[in-house]
Specification:
The protein is of the alpha/beta class and 528 residues long. The chain contains 16 helices and 27 strands. It has a domain at 422-520: GMP Synthetase, Chain A, domain 3, CATH 3.30.300. The protein is globular. The strands form 6 sheets. Strands 2-1-11-10-12-13-14-15-16 form a 9-stranded mixed sheet, with helices on both faces. It has a 5-stranded parallel sheet with strand order 4-3-5-6-7, with helices on both faces. Strands 17, 18, 20, 21 and 22 form a 5-stranded antiparallel sheet that branches. Residues 524-528 have low confidence and may be disordered. The chain starts with 7 loop residues before the first helix and ends in an 8-residue tail after the last helix. The longest helix is centred in the first third of the chain and has 18 residues, at 33-50.
Length: 528
């Protein structure tokens, strides 16, 4: 008998086979897989009692928590659609997303109920307001229903089976908005199921693994972590906020073996001054995505800490894993750190092409730039209520990522820029990540971003924005001269600004459009 690929099968299996194993560690709370399943069933029954039905949208606004993990299975179990929200957005952004998605029920962490209350009068589709607070005596705000009290009287048995198809939408994940207004990415059960398989295969997820959740769970369904780790009956260790000391404590005390994180978090780990005071017995596998880290970061992680590095590449629209970069037949020793920082080779079941403007593959020479395109079972169903955007992204049989890259003779892809981030100076295409990689070699540079700024002579030229390390100093000319030692002169920045911080999304991606807007105000033409 053919059985559809439904993500709820992951928790069903884990709870059946490993009911007494610790599934979730969240602060002082620990839940076994049986308890995890029971709470999911109770929430599913509670949502049905409220009137939530198949196809309805239920959003969750929360930092990482056991509640978040429960929502992934309870909402989809009854055929409703989960809308994970980025808790770092402002109230107006939440208003747009909740209204655009037509959310019926909101699940909100106690710290963010006030944010939602600001926009409550404008949320016309919302019927139910549920607050999650792990305190023994939660101070539930007026107008909110406490999550734990809501589910307390509900049965722990499974809800009635529904007629579900693997091509049904299981979540609507709004893009991080690095270049424009967020779009609602519709991911299906099949998308997430196949992605979980690739997560397990390529990142070597085992039953014995203990994952530390430094990555926000809302981001592209946690890259598939709620599904892949649960499928294998591994343990989720929840981190509510990225604090270096807490990361090291949990790795030490919980025996963490695996973590996914953005490059900015990796930088936090590498630059934590007290790391030598922690006795780490495991050799964690650290997976990075969101932006390629400098090769020097990878080398430091493996040589200084003895941890293992893996790079993946993908988008919210691809559920998200498209490529994987690990030591392989072409880099068996793993010491080619520059190659390790690339996006890597296509994952199982993914067909990657790097195409020119005519739709033809560019040469596999590691130099010629094209757009990274893909076809796979992990590609989104479409953008919610935005068919025009769907048609612009999926055509000629491929999803077009908007990322520009090169590939080598082995099929290893290296992302060089976003289409909108290429700097065109005097007719030359300049890759801003290439300049950034060079700048990270300077000992005073903690973070950097490179954009194009207006130039009467060249159209635009590269500008570097730099965050200096604590106690470090550097001058504009020093940075420019350093760049010219490592790059062709036409690629080197022509100006440098030193800034206290850089604007990023919740997953560590640089919001270059925010930076760029500062320098293009009043310009009659934006080159990009």
């Amino acid at each position: 008998m053919e059985v559809p690929l439904l993500v709820n099968d992951f928790l069903r299996r884990a709870a059946k086979l490993y009911p007494d194993k610790v599934a979730i560690v969240d602060g002082h709370q620990r839940f076994t897989y049986a308890q995890y399943r029971d709470r999911v069933n109770q929430l599913a029954h509670a949502l049905l009692a409220l009137g939530v039905r198949q196809g309805d949208r239920v959003c969750i606004l929360s930092p990482n928590s056991h509640y978040f993990l429960e929502s992934y299975y309870a909402v989809t179990q009854i055929g409703a659609i989960l809308v994970p929200l980025n808790y770092r957005l402002v109230a107006a952004d939440h208003e747009y997303i909740i209204n655009h998605a037509g959310v019926r029920t909101v699940l909100v962490d106690y710290e963010y109920t006030r944010v939602v209350d600001e926009i409550r009068p404008n949320l016309k589709s919302v019927v139910d307001w549920i607050s999650a607070d792990p305190a023994a005596s939660p101070a539930t705000p007026a107008g909110w229903t406490d999550w734990d009290k809501l589910i307390a009287s509900q049965p722990t048995t499974a809800t009635p089976e529904i007629d579900a198809d693997e091509n049904d939408t299981t979540s609507i994940n709004y893009t991080s908005g690095t270049t424009a207004r967020p779009k609602g990415v519709m991911l299906t059960h099949r998308n997430c199921y196949i992605n979980a398989y690739n997560f397990i295969a390529h990142l070597r997820i085992r039953h014995e693994d203990v994952e530390l959740w430094t990555l926000p769970m809302f981001h592209a369904n946690g890259w598939g972590g709620p599904f892949a780790l649960t499928a294998m009956g591994a343990t989720h260790v929840v981190l509510r906020a990225v604090v270096a000391g807490e990361i090291y404590r949990l790795i030490e005390e919980e025996g963490v073996t695996f973590a996914c994180m953005a490059p900015a978090v990796l930088s936090t780990i590498l630059n934590y001054p007290d790391k030598a005071n922690h006795n780490i017995h495991t050799k964690p596998r650290v997976t990075i995505a969101g932006a390629p880290p400098p090769a020097a970061f990878i080398q430091r992680l493996e040589t200084e800490l003895g941890w293992e590095f893996m790079q993946i590449y993908g988008l919210t629209e691809t559920a998200p894993i498209l490529t994987v970069s690990t030591p392989d037949f072409h880099n068996a020793t793993g010491t080619d750190y520059a190659r390790r920082s690339r996006a890597g080779v296509e994952a199982i079941g993914v067909d990657i092409q790097v195409l020119d403007d005519t739709g033809k593959p560019v040469p596999m020479d590691g130099v010629t730039i094209g757009e990274v395109c893909a076809r796979s079972n992990v590609i989104l169903k479409g953008y919610w209520l935005q068919q025009d955007e769907t048609d612009r992204a999926i055509f000629d049989g491929y999803f077009h990522s908007g990322d520009l890259g090169v590939w080598d003779e082995f099929g290893s892809v290296h992302i060089v820029d976003r289409k909108k981030d290429v700097i065109i100076s005097g007719g030359e295409n300049i890759s801003s990540p290439e300049i950034e990689d060079a700048l990270y070699k300077h000992p005073a540079v903690l973070e950097c971003a490179v954009i194009g700024v207006p130039s009467e002579k060249w159209g635009e030229t590269p500008k570097a924005l730099i965050v200096l390390r604590d106690g470090a100093t550097a001058s504009e000319q020093e940075i420019i001269d350093f760049s010219r030692q490592h790059l062709a002169h036409f690629k080197a920045p022509t100006s440098v600004d030193f800034v206290p911080s850089l604007p990023r999304t919740a997953t560590g991606k640089l919001q270059k459009f925010v930076i760029r807007d500062q320098y293009w105000k009043g310009a009659t033409r934006k080159v990009n």
